[in-house]
Amino acid sequence: MITLERVSKTYGSGGRAVQALEDIDLTVPKGTIHGVIGLSGAGKSTLIRCVNLLERPSAGRVFVDGQELTALDAAQLRQARHQCGMIFQHFNLLTNRSVYDNVALPLELMRESREAIRERVMPLLELTGLADKARQYPAELSGGQKQRVAIARALASRPKVLLCDEATSALDPQTTTSILSLLQEINQQLGLTILLITHEMEVVKSICHRVGLISDGRLVEEADVGDFFTAP
Ligand code: ADP
Ligand code: ADP
């Protein structure tokens, strides 16, 4: 479902070059939740941004759902990105748009009709527990509710893959738990493949099937979650 083949990423050049990723090989099978953990600066954010090519790898190939994203031109890539929803630590909602209009945005960009948008947005608000918040604005919501809006928006284009970039790092423990349950529900009910990066072991322990450890731009260890946390 997601495959990275020998992906490397270098920022800058010459004496100031930083190698953020080095020869990353990663496979995330369809329908699984895969976590990548690592310290700050290890390359997690670069890694997840290389999946939908928000960052272009300096070398290597990226496949999502059998399609090689690294081989596409700009127009094809715009199309292919609909298969990857993404959520962020700080939610990245548009503050001047209501909850409904935030979730509708990707569909507007895809030029879907108003009726088609309504038929898509309302069930997503139900799924994320926001049906009664449709007309509110992000500033009126709690952190957990904002992340729910971001999740609904990420699902609007019917992606096959959800990329979560420190999605619970700005939330308190209780809210983290409720967002993780929602992600688990999305994985189970919609069959979505989820790749998440986090610096929190607990996140990985509670919902991931497999986990990788990234250190200095290299994936140094990978295992099923049960094995990963068993003391040697
Ligand atoms: P993490 O998400 O694990 O904290 P990042 O992927 O953000 O790690 O960063 C990996 C390395 O790449 C770090 O050394 C960081 O300073 C560097 N880096 C990240 N983004 C950029 C950028 N836009 N320009 C230059 N260096 C960057
Ligand atoms: P937070 O994520 O901020 O901690 P909750 O997860 O408790 O908040 O709920 C988020 C939103 O979903 C709230 O507006 C709440 O009213 C609504 N909500 C929670 N559970 C339900 C439910 N079973 N039916 C309808 N709305 C719900």
UniProtKB/TrEMBL annotation:
This is Methionine ABC transporter ATP-binding protein. Keywords: Amino-acid transport, ATP-binding, Cell membrane, Membrane, Nucleotide-binding, Translocase, Transport. It is found in: Cell inner membrane. Residues 2-232 form the ABC transporter domain. It comes from the Bacteria. It is a peripheral membrane protein. The keyword RNA-binding does not apply. Its main location: membrane. It comes from Salinicola endophyticus. Signal peptide: none annotated. GO terms for molecular function: ATP binding.
